[in-house]
Amino acid sequence: MWPKTLFLLIVFNLTYARYTQKRSIDLIAAHGLITDTKLPQDLIPHEYLIQIHPLPEGVFNGKVSINFTVQQHTDTVALHFHPDMELLESSVRQFTRSDEEIKTKVPIETFPKSLIIKDVEKEKKKPVISFILKEAIKEGAMFEITLIYKGKIFNDTSEGLFKSTYVDPQTTETKWFVATHFRPNLARNVFPCFDEPGYKTPMVIKIGRHKNMTATSNMPLLHTEPMENMNDWVWDTFEKSPPMATFSVGFVISEFSQIKNSKVLKDNHTLTGYNIDMDVWARPNFINALVNVSSKVNQSIHILEDFWARRYPLPKLDIFALPNYQATRPADSWGILLFKESELSGKGSWHITQELVYQWLGALATPFWWSDAHINNALVRYVTAYTTLKMEENETFNNWPMTMLYSIYYEFSKRYPHGKSTAIKQDSTSAKTELIFRMLNYTLGEKTLKKGLQRFMADREFKTFFGDDIWNSITEQARIDKTLDEKISVNEIAGSWITKDRLPVVTVTRDYKKNSAKLTQRVYLRERPHDVPDQEKFVWWIPIVLVKQTNLNFQNCTPTVWMKREKEIKIENLPEKDKFIIVNPEEIGPFPVNYDVDNWNMLSKFLCTDNRKKIPVNTRAKLLHDAWNLAYAGDLSFATALNMTLFLKYEREYLAWDPVFTLIDHIGRHIDSSAVHKKFQSYVRILLTPLYEELGNDPQEGESEGRAHLRSSSKVFLCQAGYKPCIKEAQEAFKKWMEIDNPDEGNPVANQYICPVFKWGTQEEWEFGLQRVIQFPPGRKQNERTYLLKTLAGCPNDASKIERLLNITVLEKNGNFTDTDVYLIFSMLTGGANGYTTLFNFLKKNWDEIKLRLEDRPHLWNSLITSATSVFKTQEGLDMVSELYVQRQSEFGTADFVIEKSLKNIKEETKWSNDNLPIIEKWLDNYLAVNDVQTTTKI
Known about the structure:
By secondary structure, the protein is an alpha+beta fold. The protein has 4 domains: 6-23 and 369-498, Neutral Protease, domain 2; 38-166 and 175-253, Immunoglobulin-like; 503-594, Immunoglobulin-like; 711-930, Alpha Horseshoe (Zincin-like fold), CATH 1.25.50. The strands form 8 sheets. It has an 8-stranded mixed beta sheet with strand order 5-4-8-2-1-11-14-13, with no helix packed on it. Strands 16-17-18-20-19 form a 5-stranded mixed beta sheet. Helix 18 (676-695) packs across helix 30, helix 25 runs parallel beside helix 28 (858-869) and helix 26 (833-845) packs across helix 28. 44% of the residues are buried.
């Protein structure tokens, strides 16, 4: 799918990453934790005393005491305990009488008493240690287990208890620090514990440190005392925490500088008279880059306290910018937040806000088990988005939720959503659930949703919760506010969306004589064939919010009616036949909407007038996105869908343009093996050239992020479509690389120029790139070589370039190319018709020799057959692959199933092409005639 999709993927990843951090108890990995080793339920912890002494040598000494009561008669105390830790001493004491001992009047004076540990067992391949007692312990009694142990500090990952270093520029000394990152279940790596989210207990934490360093933990410092037998070392003891899960424990020991005693004040705030001690920490030569962090935190906390109607749960907050922090996500212990330096010093506040949300949702109220991770994650993301928008950070966040919506539309409309990827499944389910909260915010009203969530937090603070607790609280509030019918529950509404790996499409068919319309719902399927099992059984609770041309009021989001798991409903009192309607404006619910052709045409004409801005930009984007995706799925004529792009001639809001770039990519890729493709490229140039020329080639000082995004996108797609100024600019930049004395020392050319040169440039330029890959120095970053190889394979229009690369890597077995390189080349050639057609012809021409070379590498052979045969989309391609299958039917070996699947897929794609290409071509012919454009591209 590359290179046409490369830019889109980069933009998607950068944008989507802003609000899809895989976090904490909500990690996508949480799916795997559903089956994490569970401890027996016969003991309940009540309090921890944790004592940790990290040493510079990369080890730590630890001591933990856990008070617990017995729920069920047992002779075993089982705890989570990392296999790498070494147990040195253990003891168990009984403090109070059991229920049975109270009945038999055992004297209370005999307590506390020590119990004999008969045996200690470590479970193989499981992080569990069991202490077998000589005598069983009985219900109702309170005990304490004390363990002394030692463990390793890890340097290669920023997980568990980890150590890192940095150089102090003033003294040139190497300084070290240690920090913790226990989410989702890594507390067991540092202290024996009941390491499950359902166990929330108060903690007292005691940290050993050198006197020149500073220790911070979840709670404020209580006192400091000298360490026995170790000069210059001290113990810091911190105040007892509220009940919290083990993954919320955290501490940092460092010589960092701080922005000290910043007060988060509650002036003019609903929660007055309360201060938070908030310190920002970083290495001394970086601390000045963080002067704005306090104000961001201040603003976020104000909004979040108002949202939850609960003040920040702890008396202090420490925020760290860590050098060489390797984790992919920030670490949010309760009261301590750890960030990469770049995350904390950046312009936006999304990262900070999200970690602050976890101080309430995850720390104050905690999911009981990982099975509710996606709901916790979804609500965190929703509240983060809510807070960010309230902070009016529109510049960095005004694309929410469109990018996320588009991606889940594509995922859930596949024949087999997620493939075999649990990570994609978890993330898309969480994203969909986030959108359900957004839908409820609109349809029930922001006031009702907020009060419902406040009700939930008031009930579950310092406790654990299940997903249904959230939905029940919102339901109760909606009934109080009378924004939801007594017979309807939010659980039922949300469940109809969350439990399906699908989304609906609503089709609106108007009866213009009766001023009414029939609305139907069914599964939205974009990928062919639409043969999903049991799709007729899928129904949703769908809010129908309706806007009429006669009253373009986009503020009223109260549903006209709910489709209550009904396949079909009818609505009345619609406008006259010359007035359009819009259903689901602003993407209130995550579903596309189709209309009859007359309504689509009225929308298209209206958008081409000066009145189009009466329709908000998100809704303009939705109409365009829905139209072309429904056409792609076979539910709407492409003539109608392409008519919906005509208003872009006048459109300059980048959110409205966003769907267009995906359209160009998806449709262009689908038709690039046909004669229609050149006409489509001409259409792209006509569409984008005025926009790009108006924006200018160079960024302007202080311009918006949206404008920069629009310029970058339009430039990329113009280059792909053969826009001459772009090609010239790329070649001039590339020439500088070709003229330097030692081109292998580094690449001075921006990545944006490389693909256009390899696609539209000369054989000499492409050959120069090939030699840079072959002669790539081992000391340089290998990802630079990978990018270059991708462009060499995926970009060229000239089949001879591709064939030369295949000869070198497959037939000549050039030692500079690995199997991984060859696999990458095969994959890249599927991105365009020129690539996979050339690969097919190469395979057919050199079948015997290739088969001989790859017969002992079935993964490469299967990859070759897949890439060479599976991507054709026309009758001509079907005939080519069918002929090869007949000729070599007994020779495919391990790729037998691949070629059979390819033929089946090509038949579906051929049907799509037969149905749609004539319509697309006719529309393009008319469009090009109106614009008086020749389709021949001369570079």
